[in-house]
């Protein structure tokens, strides 16, 4: 649904000129003035404004197009009379657009080419850029690659002429175009470019770019960034008093992100706001699509009856016999949830009939169809028929790098394998789903995995018991045969009866001893197995603890990031950012611990590299700072790694922010073992250094207090010097208990 509204907004709104936004009353006054007065340069420019006004008015009716053609002819006559080359080029371009609006595409393209030759001949770069932009908007023959080429050329021309406003506008259109061809990385790149220029121009009109960033990051599975930019888009749209269609788009996007993050209450609130605005703007298609999203959100929250009621109301608002997948697929999901499979069956059969048609449509339509078919087949006992649809969905998700859907598909694969009795396959897919969810900070399925693991182990144990029983029966039969043979042998050899009796007695004693030993060995084996299970459980719990600590820290970071979007006080923003960096320093340690088999210590060389990369991305947007690392592969436990990481965070972030004002610099980080169990950490920069007469004891700084306190926590020594920069040196001893 997001892409439906996006198509309306960003393929129509960008090509409207400033004239369309001109107050209607002012334009009427301008048209009156044009009927009188002498011909001059200003009149030629006003005629161009009037031409554009008539072309945009009421989507260009025949009467308006004829009026635009007449005024354009007057404008070009005046422009040629006074040799106004810029106006001539603009009039030629408008003549081409008029021809295309009249349905004469061939003539329009011919006029475009003539305009381009004219602009290039007289080096009219702004007009040339406008021509390439018009090519991208109006040429029916231009595919997406050519549109990208035209817009890129236009952007470079606007940049040459310092027309930053139009340059930013073209970057935004490129962001939209790349999004439409599922290239989210390029879409994000050009949205950032547009934002960068607008901020230089002190423009706060950024809600369109924020929306594109939110859409791009949502596709990539970066929900923290997607939600942050979507909320910024909402805030900016309110300030800029954006039109209803844009607000509807933003509210629907926020509702979708909240729904995929499983915050269904919040998603429903935003979906309802989007529906209300769409109804105000008489956006029939928008109301229908958002209604489906709202019903889907209620369905995910378990409010099935309410979801069905909203869906029925929406179906009455928009009824069609065509292959419409939104309503059909959701009816299947709801009726299956209500276990009313006889009501779901007609919709299932309808989807099957429409399958060939729907597979030719966009990916979103296909995804909804396949998910509904899979759900119906699993619920009605035909899970073995779902794998074909699951494979198709995985192809679509991998093509779009859609991490959220890949995680959901692994869960769907798990359900199908569980339903068909393939428990090993189910465990594998559940593990894959959990790994994908790590990047989305979503819910943990460990209990479900444990239940399945227990079920599989129980089934395996039952098979082993059956096998052991069979072995025991064979062994008992063999023992009986041995007894018979022994008695026959005793009966046939009466002479040796005493010897055999002694041997038998000896054999019985040995057998008894062996039985005792076997019982003892069995008891030992049982205890060893229990200890092994306890050890595995302890390791699993430790990993789970580190995982949850890391997720909790990430959630706090996300909350602080969201809060910062609503703060304007620079000190508060810096305090929040510092807190985020400190928590990120701790989060990296817990992340490494649960991702590796070693739960007692962390490799500091890896950790220092990760932390410096994060700090560089956070503070060094201009690539002014280069890091030089001299680190050994040394292990520290959490108790020493956390304070060391916080010391690194404070020292490096201070160096990046304060050591290199308006110039580039180098930060050297050394972490080595100077002698056995004695470690040295040094952070050194070649910046401006400390001020003359600097005294550590007189410095009132939370960061420096933290470094001093954390050094004491390490039982180490702290030294700071300044000589062509600042050097912080920490020396401490690795605790013997950690060895």
Written account of the structure:
By secondary structure, the protein is mainly α. It has a domain at 600-738: Heat Shock Protein 90. It is 73% helix and 6% strand. It has helices at 2-12, 24-34, 41-56, 62-81, 85-101, 105-121, 125-138, 144-160, 164-180, 184-200, 207-220, 223-240, 244-260, 264-280, 284-300, 304-317, 325-337, 341-358, 363-379, 387-399, 403-419, 423-438, 446-492, 497-564, 570-595, 604-619, 638-658, 702-713, and strands spanning 602-603, 625-631, 635-636, 665-675, 678-685, 717-722, 726-733. Strands 2-4-5-7-6 form a five-stranded mixed beta sheet, covered by helices on one side. The longest helix has 68 residues, at 497-564. Residues 1-22 and 441-457 have low confidence and may be disordered.
Keywords summarizing the entry:
28 helices; 73% helix; Heat Shock Protein 90; mainly alpha; two-stranded antiparallel sheet; 739 residues; five-stranded mixed sheet; 7 strands
Rg calculated over all Cα atoms: 37 Å
Reported by name, the CATH topology of one domain is Heat Shock Protein 90
Average predicted confidence as pLDDT? 78
Largest beta-sheet characterization:
5 strands, mixed
CATH superfamily of one domain: Histidine kinase-like ATPase, C-terminal domain
Helix count, per DSSP?
28
Order of strands across the main sheet? 2-4-5-7-6
Under CATH at level 1, the class of one domain stands as Alpha Beta
How would the global form be characterised?
A: flat
The CATH architecture of one domain can be given as 2-Layer Sandwich
Q: How big a fraction of the residues is strand?
A: 5-15%
Number of strands: 7
Q: Which spans of ≥5 residues are poorly predicted at pLDDT below 50?
A: 1-22, 441-457
